[in-house]
Amino acid sequence: GAGGTSNPSGTAEEGQLSHSGSVDSLTGMQYAVDPTKPYEDPFPDSDEEEDPWKPKWMSHRVELTDTSEVFETINPSWLKWSDPQLMRKATKTHWKSWRPAQGMVGEVMYEWRPFHIDTLHRSHIDKTILLVKLELEGDMYVLVKEQGVQEVT
Fold first, then answer.
1. How far is 118 from 102, CA to CA, in rounded Å?
2. Which residue from 9, 59, 124, 153 has the fewest beta carbons nearer than 10 Å?
3. Is the pTM of this model over 0.85?
């Protein structure tokens, strides 16, 4: 119509355009779409991002690489514990004269991550904290930031 008003029914050409192609909102590129074919993901592997809240370290074997990242003491209220016994075992009160050393290896039993959706898995700092059961006599556990370990393969 005249005066800048649009034709609500649109022209045949406009209608065809909406079926024959679409514009990628990110790149502005136009791509063809065939409405008769089922949608096929052009990047099938790109969606394989796992659940962001799924533990990353659980059950992995790790080696202590930086003992300065180990917590010797921790305020019990900082982290939520499914097993309060473990909390006591993971501090120097339980260790007595023993101290964790670089190169010690153990299994990650638990992890707390920053801003985790579940408070039982939420770190009180902006770092992921791991509870590691070391492969030593006497049930030795350490709480360590993930920066202080590396995975053992």
1. 31
2. 153
3. no
